[in-house]
């Protein structure tokens, strides 16, 4: 569509500038290690739990839902969570709740996926105070809510959520989703490259999602993206090297 | 944040039963997990800590990797149950519909060890229609397939080339209609696999995998794999292979061509000679895999001529090393195998040229099995909607778990990378363990050495 030539060409341009994807930069595993050291006394037990959930996530991404569910079951089978401290419980939940939510998403249970993702955001809010990197995990969750809305054909709702995400990431404005607050101060505690890279990756993801929608929905999604990239704050951001 | 240790003095873990130890030099100990197919190399003092389950003294990153590789597992875990669960889940989650078709009962060769009775039977038009209807019904009934895979087996499938050409577009159209990946493979004696036939099959009939058998060099092969008319076959097959591998666009075809060398007491001396010959012809670099297989029972006594399995395994590791030294693409360490054969996939079927339906590749055309009850049905009498779910061996994993498989698999450390070998052979009371069971330690060490130092290191041997 000619109308969006500018959008696509800007996307190409950004792709060239954005050498490293957000997830490649985040190295969340390293930060999880820091959290385990701080919160868990029995690190080995937690590692077992974490390892199995990571494998479950990998399998669910490939559509092997039964295998993923077996791994989830294995992760929890030998651990009595009732014996854990409150902080430990929360850290275990921070691992399992988002992956359980993703499994619901893959199985098409969008309501359960939404609930799990919202609960993850609350857990992130708890941990971000001590581990500011978790703030980016929290942004991932709100992005996941937009994805769930797209999948459940609630395009308008998805675009409202995305608008908030870009306000937060581009304008560094505080946003609130239901009762969960996203305070931009946590952006300052983390690498600015991470923020910029995340803007590009989310934008790219939304444009890819647009291609999967019917024509009129596709146009409204692309219109939304076009609005983002023509916004003065985005242009300001673009003049700085992304990565 | 408050913390306390709920697991204080509580040891939750143990070393996995499913591991094989191999030592390299004086200071490196390798542990291969058959559950994950991963190898951990540890310095000897660290290895000792691991072997003694002294996890508190293991470096954190080592513990973490041992855990991730399933070399350390929960103490309470029943590992056999876990392996069986993974196998069964993998079968249940398989999104490939596998259909083997034997389009003819005919074969030019009269190999001594073959148990099949060859006739001129060919699939007729009604049978081909019924095959298409049967595949169509399965694809429509289950909408979770993402691939249709066809295996063209024999007798000799190329003696029914016209059937392959007639069926392929219809099967491919079904795959396209359901938005599935389509692939097909062929096991052939290679006699009729002229370059033009090969190219036609690859380019127009979606064949992407061929397996061809050479039982040693000419002198040995021709004593075993001769034409029914008594003529020799080696030179014809090899010339076909040379033409195929020398085709200038071969690598762009993305086609896998394997050579299997069947071996027993009478021809094992020829394996290294064959490796030399294939190497001197330059075939080795284009070959995807070269492997040696012991002759097995095919409803007959052919296995009695086989080398004793431990003896075969000793020789096999030498052949593996020799082929690597000669720059062949030889796999060294087997990986996790969740499905031993088509028999345990409840959706997979084989249809022969008489329209008989089986769930095993070793039974059709073999007179010894005529009255065995292994025939699931026949196309002429079986409605496409009848999925023939009463089948032998689909419960194979449960039989292993319950130790009712008439095999040693229940307690075998290599079960995860073997899957239980051939259920039918075990049922017949014939030893069926794979040769790698007897040379795994060497394979693990060899794989590690090559990964560390490159295959050039083998030139010293």
TrEMBL record, chain B:
This is SPASM domain-containing protein. Gene3D superfamilies: Aldolase class I. It holds the Pfam family Radical_SAM. Keywords: 4Fe-4S, Iron, Iron-sulfur, Metal-binding, S-adenosyl-L-methionine. Its cofactor is [4Fe-4S] cluster. Coiled coil: none annotated. The lineage of its organism: Bacteria, Pseudomonadati, Bacteroidota, Flavobacteriia, Flavobacteriales. The keyword Transmembrane does not apply. Residues 101-242 form the Radical SAM core domain. CDD domains: Radical_SAM. It comes from Chryseobacterium rhizosphaerae.
